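pinned: reference chain
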Amino acid sequence: MKKSEIIVNALEYIREFRGKVFVVKLGGEVMLDERIIASVAQDLIFLHIVGIKPVVVHGGGGEISHTMDKLGKAPVFVEGLRKTDKETMDIVEMVLTGKVNTQIVSQINKHNGHAVGLSGKSGRLFEARKTNQKVDIGFVGEITKVNPHILETQLQNGYIPVVSPVGLAKSGESLNINADTAASKLAQAMNASKLIILTNVRGVLDKDSRLIKRLTLAEAVKTAKSKTVKGGMKPKIKACIEAINGGVNRTHIVKANTHAVLEEILTKKGTGTLITKNKIKD
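pinned: its structure tokens
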């Protein structure tokens, strides 16, 4: 009876979102747990089967640093951004596109889904330029244009696209793109109904470390400037704010527990932080 009740309650959300695009961003730390990857893969397949169109963007910072350490190259960060010389960029691309992307695609296909791996260079998906910083940090980029046609083609043909955040400069060089920013830009370009950021924390927390379940756009802007938001949460809230300003209806920051995606979007309670332009009624 409990399972039947859950399914019936989920129907209203399935009807509302059927045919809509959801951009799901997987944090690099999420992919350290194979059980969580398998759960996310199953959630994505479920969404796909009921007519929702998931597009995945993933990070992989931890895996990049780990690989650099093994190769005897120390990671260097400037104001939170990885300093990326040519050798480091080769490692970034190898890890993101060659390893992490393949791992996610394999998990989705293992559970009888149909995923295809792409990088931001595929079909010039992410056109980018070098980030303008006071200190030269090398091949770190910011997206100047998103060309989502290749993803739309994959979705029309029944595939779940999985994208690594590597951009393409006019010179033809590869650029390292922040995954939260890439997911936000992609959600805007595809007129996505939702941007869902999966991470290793519960969501946005207040000064007493309690979960903030809902934020309006104005509240999110204020929260992003507060001292309670630190480290990796800053670019996540910023990505959500930019997505909403760019036309995305709802954004979510969610801890990647077992079946967290389905619980967040197919139940009223949810599990993480929901950010919307205006306050919504229950």
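why pinned: The two ends are 24 Å apart (CA to CA). The longest strand covers residues 21-26.
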